[in-house]
Amino acid sequence: MVVLSAEQVRAWDRFTIEKQPIASIDLMEKAAMACVQWMETNRIVNQQQFYIFCGKGNNGGDGLAIARLLQKFNRPVDVFIFETGQLGSPDFQQNLHRLHTLPVTIHFIQENSPLPDIPESVLVIDALLGTGLNRPVEGRMAALISHINQYPNAVISIDLPSGLFADQSTLPHPCIHASITLSFQCFKPALLVSENALFFGIPVILDIGLDQRFLNSCTPLYEMTDGPLAKAILQPRLAFSHKGKFGHALLLAGSPGKMGAAVLAAKACLRSGAGLLTTLVPELERMLFPTAIPESMSILYDNRKPEEILSDTSIYKTIGIGPGLGQQPQSRDWLHHLLTHFRKPMVLDADALNLLASDVRLLEGIPPFSILTPHPKEFDRLNGTCSNDFERLEAALRMAIQHQVIVVLKGHRTFIAMPGGRAWFNTSGNASMAKGGSGDVLTGMLTGLLARGYAPEQAALLGVYLHGLAGEIASRKLGKESVLASDIIDSIGPAFLELESSN
Ligand SMILES: NC(=O)C1=CN([C@@H]2O[C@H](COP(=O)(O)OP(=O)(O)OC[C@H]3O[C@@H](n4cnc5c(N)ncnc54)[C@H](OP(=O)(O)O)[C@@H]3O)[C@@H](O)[C@H]2O)[C@H](O)CC1
Ligand SMILES: [K+]
Q: What catalytic activity is recorded (predicted)?
């Protein structure tokens, strides 16, 4: 699935109109029909009354066509046209003309006319502005948007909540707070970043039949993971194999008082298919691991120099570093030792990233195609503060390209930036995973997949998708409030099975 900019969507529009061919007014009709069909399927059309706020561009044209199509449900529809003094786009005008023949009440919001009161039985449809937004809303339009936002009524925004820029930050400008956004054909970046969550509500993508041939020659801004993509990456576990075939991972995680993170990462690593695992464990915690996770071997370390304890790392396929590690000098020494002696892709998370942030020269020493898994705060410590989500996405992609690493920027829609310049938003997972330890599990999973033999980019896409799917499976059983990181681990197997059996 692709994520396109406003300009790319407009180009797709033009391509479709020319190649299919289809008249733009008919494309608008398809868009409006898709919206009304979605509303009918979701039993929204038996709503008592509709107020449809329309701009004078094609977004407004959509609104007028929707007003006309809603007639068949015999519900009162009021249309409020935001008067700009201009005629409006040709398709807007044509739909206004078609509407005049129907019993729809049309109001014009003039410069000085009072803004309409919105009765509580009304469902608001926002068709003021879409992808044609070319400046922050201000003046009367801003006043209307703030006016609508003051009411508790549900709002369905057409294509984009009015005032939202499709591919740049809208903050701090006004924007409609939609309950649902019905967007056409594909996601735009604005519908995937957490800073806009209040604006887009629940994003729904409606297929309006844009010509798929356009994608053959379009380099999407970003892409999205999905089941088929993840399934295509899955490797069979061949029958005649022995544990050595599935790689030996090394894990440097945990510190006195924070060994739980190490246990979670270790279990997740083995649950993700690694053949063998050795965990570097502080001497003080020697009794923990054999009981907590007997399947992992341990190397106990004390205050001696790392090279005295572990000089040869060549037997390991990969190394996961960070969960619960702490930032004391001993952890720094171990990180420095492993970065110096181990040149295959590794996984760096949590305190490993914080240690890198305190000495960015270490960034140069990261083996190419290693996977970094920062949450936004850890990323900003490493990269420098970003003022909004869009800046952070671009910075993550720059870091991936500059340091030839994979940056997994964790969040509701985790963003996976690749060294070659492509990037994916993840689509699996849910709020049940917003809990301590969830990131430790992801680190373990990625370490396990690298040990298992997946190429780093495949490991990142598959691991992030599976991690989210495991969270969904756990929340199906336990509900969204009660999922623990260990429940995600227990759901890794079922996630593999669900993915394998999906079509
Ligand atoms: N393939 C598709 O996705 C389809 C999308 N459709 C719909 O078309 C809109 C895009 O329509 P467009 O006419 O390009 O633009 P808008 O309707 O979003 O905006 C109309 C005009 O509003 C003016 N504008 C821009 N910014 C502001 C602002 N901050 N305040 C006030 N007015 C603003 C601008 O005109 P100016 O002359 O003022 O610059 C815009 O041109 C898309 O979102 C879909 O809803 C098609 O219907 C079907 C296919
Ligand atoms: K809109």
A: (6R)-NADPHX = (6S)-NADPHX; (6R)-NADHX = (6S)-NADHX; (6S)-NADHX + ADP = AMP + phosphate + NADH + H(+); (6S)-NADPHX + ADP = AMP + phosphate + NADPH + H(+)
**Cα separation of 299 and 282, whole Å?**
8
Could you read off the pLDDT of 450-480 as tens digits, one per residue? Answer: 999 999 999 999 999 999 999 999 999 999 9
Distances in Å between the alpha carbon of 36 and those of 29, 72, 469? 10, 10, 31
- Give me the pLDDT at residue 392, please: 98
- Give mean pLDDT, residues 341-356: 96
Instruction: Clarify whether residues 181 and 308 are in a common domain.
Output: no
Q: Is 166 in the pocket of ligand 1 (CB under 6 A)?
A: no
Residue 416 Cα to ligand 2 middle (Å): 29
Which of 201, 220, 239 terminates a domain? The answer is: 220
Q: Does residue 183 share a domain with residue 96?
A: yes
Instruction: Tell me the torsion sign for CA atoms 440, 321, 195, 456.
Output: negative
User: CA-CA distance, 125 to 36, in Å (whole number)?
Assistant: 11
| pTM check: above 0.90 | yes
Ligand 1, closest atom to CA 89? 13
- 318-321/406-409 β-pairing: unpaired
Domain count, the chain: 2
Please report which ligand is nearest the Cα atom of 141. Answer: 1
- Identify the domain containing residue 198 by its residue range: 2-220
| CATH for 160 | 3.40.50.10260
Q: How far apart are CA 321 and CA 220, in angstroms?
A: 33
Residue count of the chain:
503
- Across the beta sheet with 180-184, the strand order is 105-109, 77-82, 49-54, 122-127, 155-158, 180-184, 202-206
Structure tokens at 407: 């940056």
* Res. 342: pLDDT tops 90: yes
Atom of ligand 1 lying closest to residue 135 CA: 29
Query: Which of 52, 59, 86 should be mutated for ligand 1, with most atoms under 8 A from CB?
Result: 59
H helices of 272-406, in order, are 288-292, 306-309, 329-341, 350-358, 361-364, 376-383, 389-403
- Whether the predicted pLDDT of 75 surpasses 90: no
Q: Which residues pair with 60 in a beta bridge?
A: none
Question: How close is the Cα of 148 to the center of ligand 1, in Å?
Answer: 19
Q: Rounded distance, CA 437 to CA 426, Å?
A: 19
| 250 and 122 inside one domain | no
DSSP assignment, residue 295?
Answer: T
Q: 383 labelled as ligand-binding?
A: no
In this prediction, residue 237 carries a pLDDT of 77
Residue type, position 174, single letter: P
pLDDT single digits (tens) 271-295: 999 999 999 999 988 888 889 999 9
